[in-house]
Amino acid sequence: MTHTGVDEAPSRNAAPGGGRRVRLAVFLGLGLLLALLLAGVVSSAASSQPDGLDATAREGCTFNSDDEITGGDCLAKSARDHDLADSPLADYGIRGVDNSFLSTGLSGVAGVLLVAAIGGGLFWVLRRRGPAGD
Amino acid sequence: MMREALCRPSEGEALEPTGTPVAMHVSDGIINLPVSAAFGALAVAWIALALVKARRDLDDRLAPMAGLVAAFIFAVQMLNFPVLPGVSGHLLGGALAVILVGPWVGALCVATVLLVQALLFADGGLSALGLNVTNMAVITTLVAYGVVALALRVLPKNRLGVVVASFVAATVSVVVASQGFVGEYALGGEVDKALGPISATMAGVHLLIGIGEGLITATTVATVAAVRPDLVYALRRYRAPQLLITPATVPTGSNA
Question: ipTM of this model?
Answer without folding.
Answer: 0.84
